Amino acid sequence: MVRKADPAVANAVEEKNIKGVYADVESDRYYPLGPVGSQALGYVGPNASNNGESGHYGLEAFYDDYLEGPTSSIGGQDLQLTIDPNIQIEAEKILDDLVVVNGATGGSVMVEDPQTGKILAMGAYPSFDPNDYASSPVANFLNPNVQAVYEPGSIIKVLTMAAGIDSGNVSPNSTYDDVGYVNVNGAHITNYNLTTHGPYGPGTTMSDIIEHSINTGAIWVENRMGNPTFTEYMKKFRLGEKTGIDLPGEVSGNLSQLNSHSPQVVFDTSAYGQGISMTPIELMTAVAGIANGGMMMRPYLNAADTPQELGRAVSSSTARTVATMMVSAIDNISGAPAISGYSLAGKTGSAYIPNPKGGGYLNQLDDSYIGFGPTSNPRFVAFIRLNTLPVTALAAESVVPAFKNLAQFIINYYNIPPDRPDTATAGQ
After folding, report:
1. What angle do CA 96, 331, 169 make, to 5 degrees?
2. Entry pTM
3. What is the pLDDT of residues 287-336, one digit of tens each?
4. 399 neighbors 384 (Cβ within 8 angstroms)
5. What CATH number belongs to 85-414?
6. What is the maximal distance between C-alpha atoms in the chain?
């Protein structure tokens, strides 16, 4: 028996009028957008007993009972998603082009409404066509946004800064003397641009740390608040635990190394996003909390769900302060993804990839960027990641322009009015 046969073949079989061989029509799942959103959707295929069909991976698996119904005579229910097809299509187009141009091994993209947790887009490269899933490797079915962890790099600095300010150990007006490096437990940690820029010197501000992505600045903030407080706030941002998104197979990051038995170097590197792992959805949920005035929201894809608060990570005043620093990281840096008339907040992250064969790091990077806006009333938070790039690749040259294109599309699509129409942004 051949299922889902080509219509031309089925017609030819019927015309032959062969005894015992016939063609019939039955209802089946069809995905009109092909590979678009495939990791979030999953697919319908033969069940474990091979006597029917069931959902595999993604939403098809998570809501299989709901979609299938209790019996063959009592049909299942429809499932309406929070995903906006237009944003999904554009986000995946931007991602696909980005991966190809930069020679990355893969990538992922997400867009969320930070005020509700609604997922507006979720995609990954490489993807697969759920209408023809058998032609793709099983690895493509997995959703790296929820089923794989990575070290995020400097995006974590906004959470470190939020923790320092919210705990009262630093203030927006605090300064320190940046000498460009820190020696701790036998490790020599430098700013990523020490050889080209040199130290930032005395009077380096908290906003400078975010704007220029200063590793030693993140370490200084962590040291000021102390390891227990830093760990407490990483947990307040719900890093190291599942978000509860309605997708199967969600994994969580790992904060186990942030304990009293670990050397100080572990906390210092974690403060700027190395040696600490999480899923992209964990990271986006945390930064969406900054966009949402400090309140964390559960991400979800079933439009019938209602928004669910996960708890407050930081105060609303701390969230506004850090958001302002993230705006400066766009406004005041050449090449940043500024859009004239709009107050956008963002942060880059370039991180070395852990060596899977035992200790240390590969000479390769993951580049990611996360941003939200307009900050006066955030309508979206967007995340873009590229996997396995040369060590010379920086997020500012890869994912940053892609974020700008995606943000501009969303602003135009939603017809979002400018929140500072008289301001010409310096970074444009």
Report:
1. 105
2. 0.91
3. 999 999 999 999 999 999 999 999 999 999 999 999 999 999 999 887 78
4. yes
5. 3.40.710.10
6. 90
